[in-house]
Amino acid sequence: MQDLQINTLRVKKERLWDSLMEMAQFGATEKGGCNRLAGTDLDKQARDLFVSWCKTAGCEITIDKIGNIFARRPGKNNDLPAVGTGSHLDTQPTGGKFDGVFGVLAGVEVLRTLHENKIETPTAMEFSVWTNEEGSRFQPAMQGSGVYAGRFDLETELNKTDVDGIRLGDELKRIGYLGDAEPGSRNVGAFFETHIEQGPILEDADKAIGIVRLGQGIRWYNIEIQGRESHSGTTPMYLRKDAMVASAEIISEIENIAHRHENGLGTVGFMQVYPNSRNTIPGNIKFSADLRNPKPDVLLAMHEELTAFCQSVADKRGLEINLDPFWYFAPVEFNASDDVKAATEKLGYSHMDIYAGAGHDACYMADLVPAGMIFTPCEGGISHNEVEYSSPEQCEAGANVLLHTMLEASHRLASAS
Ligand code: GLV
Ligand code: MN
Ligand code: MN
Predict the structure, then answer these.
(1) How many angstroms separate the CA atoms of 313 and 310, rounded?
(2) 408 alpha carbon to ligand 2 midpoint, in Å?
(3) What digits encode the pLDDT tens for the residues 254-308?
(4) CB within 6 Å of ligand 1 — which residues?
(5) What's the CATH code of the domain at 285?
(6) Ligand 1 pocket: which of 139, 360, 373 to mutate (most atoms <8 Å of CB)?
(7) Domain holding 361: CATH number?
(8) How many Cα atoms occupy the beta-carbon half-sphere of 376 within 13 Å?
(9) Ligand at shortest distance from the CA of 267
(10) How many structural domains compose the chain?
(11) pLDDT (tens digit, 9 = 90+) per residue, 137-195?
(12) 184 with 281, same domain?
């Protein structure tokens, strides 16, 4: 009886959609997106709403020392490891309503479906929100899950500051999300994350679900160029130490590096110019670089080319260039992808294998437990943009796959015990 009931269990499309729209009010932008940076008052409002929804559906809440939130729904045997899911509620400055939020709220929809149908799962189920996945206000990205997985040092990350010098730890305390649980201490045996694809592949192939097999590698850099400020109208060209033209050469080479390598990607998205005055030759420039590739050896070659090019520009122009490669995220394989595939096939959704171009919290959870990701299409493949859109039906499919993946994993964890 219970098996039959479980097989026919489905999430509620309208409820999931309404929750997505309700969450999107925090930081809503004029163009229909969200600007909800990590550790802000808006982040607090979003977290509070998640916590209240989970409490209403019978969960106990734990917050850890880097601000990650865990909502646990008990199962039949609560000594066994739980099945976890989660994503992030912070957004980019020009973010949409779905990146991260959909993964969190797909979890809430799974929780509500279990709760209203009074399903007793073999193990507990755990629903999480990870701190600062975006890496926009504080760097690097996936900071909460990275600390949780032991990849980053807790104190170092709490001491990270934004462009105004405000500490992450102080912001978490201020918004009431600096908890006392030890990162890494949850009793979880498998982890799944639902996310919009953020690219065009599923839409182009007309598939409902992406079974994510791999998360590609990422390297992040801070680049600082020290030149010399001087007057734009009186400094002859041969006397200049222009940090801007040196930056321009490097930025252009980052694009060249990406083009030279199969599946290579290269981006400069952040820049600070000093003194930022139109008639003074810039003396100091700081900018970011983001290189990506699914193959670690190719990403290493890209890294080496960038390093050598920066040195050559420094030598040629007589400038100081400091390249700080402060974050390397190695490509990760998701070894619980077959659970996602089995649930997708059981539900009859079209699907294909895919790799993740973005970083995700599940990538760090994959260090600790079998993990998998469920991708759904998004319109035009556009994300990190206020127009980012997935339809109610696309979201429903992802949440249904999450529900059945988690149920299957819970049965597996219980029968393995
Ligand atoms: C984070 O989500 C990233 O891919 O940069
Ligand atoms: Mn995301
Ligand atoms: Mn993102």
Answers:
(1) 5
(2) 25
(3) 999 999 999 999 999 999 999 999 999 999 999 999 999 999 999 999 999 999 9
(4) 133-135, 141, 358-359
(5) 3.30.70.360
(6) 360
(7) 3.40.630.10
(8) 27
(9) 1
(10) 2
(11) 999 999 999 999 999 999 999 999 999 999 999 999 999 999 999 999 999 999 999 99
(12) no
